[in-house]
Description:
single chain; alpha/beta; 434 Repressor (Amino-terminal Domain); Rossmann fold; 3 domains; 6-stranded parallel β-sheet; 6-stranded mixed β-sheet; 16 helices; 14 strands; 46% helix
Amino acid sequence: xxxxxxxxxxxxxxxxxxxxxxxxxxxxxxxxxxxxxxxxxxxxxxxxxxxxxxxxxxxxxxxxxxxxxxxxxxxxxxxxxxxxxxxxxxxxxxxxxxxxxxxxxxxxxxxxxxxxxxxxxxxxxxxxxxxxxxxxxxxxxxxxxxxxxxxxxxxxxxxxxxxxxxxxxxxxxxxxxxxxxxxxxxxxxxxxxxxxxxxxxxxxxxxxxxxxxxxxxxxxxxxxxxxxxxxxxxxxxxxxxxxxxxxxxxxxxxxxxxxxxxxxxxxxxxxxxxxxxxxxxxxxxxxxxxxxxxxxxxxxxxxxxxxxxxxxxxxxxxxxxxxxxxxxxxxxxxxxxxxxxxxxxxxxxxxxxxxxxxxxxxxxxxxxxxxxxxxxxxx
Length: 379
């Protein structure tokens, strides 16, 4: 049976093929009522775009996806980059390629790097906005030129970007407050360690945590928000000062992946080891701190999946007649001592190219104590 196509949709909707194309791709130039009608008919027909046919029509144009994400902190952004490249590699035979232009760290050299990318003939842009005030005008400029912009992890909500991929940052902060309240008594003092509050993701996480803590921890109070600017040295120094100011601090929410300097600050003050941490995401260096109880829980944002989704959205838009939603929120995971060995960042620790699938399966079954032994053996 022949699959329904845009000609059939146009006939039933009593509109032109061009109107159907604009509706399916989320482009301007048609009314919302017409767009709704076209999309409803497409859904009723079970319309599925022909990727191969679409690829033939765009391959000559060579779909170029610009990627501008930070190099630091590499624990997080290396995973995101791998997700992007793996997804593009899946469709590399269809004329899709990545133009990778990372920035040294969040917010650094953003303007110059994005200007360079926009001059390189890209059709889509994946970007982690560090400073939305700087990035938003460039995003708007890109969208006017027909470049679909996908913000990843951090958003630029005042811009006209096409979509956002990531965990809702305010929900992230509220979840952290609920988790931390399970490990600290009522009336406790807590603090937030973040990157920089000018970054939308960091600011919203802090706001969510501050608003929710009293709801879950009766009498709980956020006494300070520390901006570490993703610098390990600055974060360590500021956390040592924080602990000196508040010797009775019960908990800290680290809203970025930069948690090791916070752990070191606690290690340097043995009397404060009762302070519990709720951190963000997961990487090898965090395992010992889960084992010894310093890190009570971590909120997993799955950077690999974020990268994969962002690239897939761009590919499906240009090759698959797929409309872009305004936001794509991921459900965050919760990492505890008992399940940390099941996450990909840790399950990879005991695997190697020569070890094969059986070795990978054994790695996934390692207990937390076995993981710690593996890490120590590799030192």
